[in-house]
Amino acid sequence: MDKTSRMKLLIPLDGSPLAERVLTAAAQLARKTHAAVNLLHVLEKDPPDKVHGQMHLTTANQAEEYLRATAESRIFKGIDVKFHVHLVGVRDVSQSISDHIEELKQDMVIMCTHGSSGLHDLFVGSIAQQVVSLSKTPVMLVNPSLEKSKAEPNFQSFLVPLDGNPDHEHGLEYALNLAELCQAKIHLMIAVPRLGTMSGELTTITRYLPGTTARMMDMVVPDARAYLRKLGSKFEDLGQTISTTISRSDPSKAIFKIARTSKSDLIILATHGKRGAKPFWEGSVTPRVIRSSELPILLVPVRE
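-> structure tokens emitted (304 positions)
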């Protein structure tokens, strides 16, 4: 994210009311950061008549009329909004979106957490997940229930879960830049699970070595506390307000609990953006957080 120029937000839309549920959060972020917005529709080759049970945009004229009306709607009043229709039908929508991110030099993509298999599979295999895996640009995922909840984000407080992996600090670096634009606070957290709260591959280890595993987790806590203290001091020296928490519970549950207690309205996660059903973190933390969170999730890709 280039601090010397205005932030640019890309919003892919397919014409469905479900996809439109990102618009409130996107407009709020655009106002907070004085960002420009670019609405995008990619025409598909042999498109279906309906998507998510709603009429689908199948022609260039339909798409341009729809995007123009959306750009001129009250929700974007006072915001610089442009729109673009990719006129040549494509088979791979996610690849086309990724290409447009680079071509239009966008700083963030904002998408709804819905996939081809519906709301029961909000992330794995969805277009949003594929865009994350293809692009170097952060992707904000907005739960379609957000518009109906009281959790409308004001982008005043960001929760950044960490696990001690230096790669995941890339998400913190992006969070700091975004917090500066939004005048937001940052809360750092690490979840160190207890014996009965482990998930994923760790459950196999605990089954055979419960005592050893419990002692190992207890030994991690002082290191985690020192790690957070070091990061907090580093960024407080730069003038950023940082608070920290260590939780002794299941990571995904800890994230939701700390998001509530810290009054966070955005969760920022670094990810390697692997394709398919392979979990992003040990124990599939990221997909579980995305599936259950009412808050927007900002995924910051980690690349070699």
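The radius of gyration is 20 Å.
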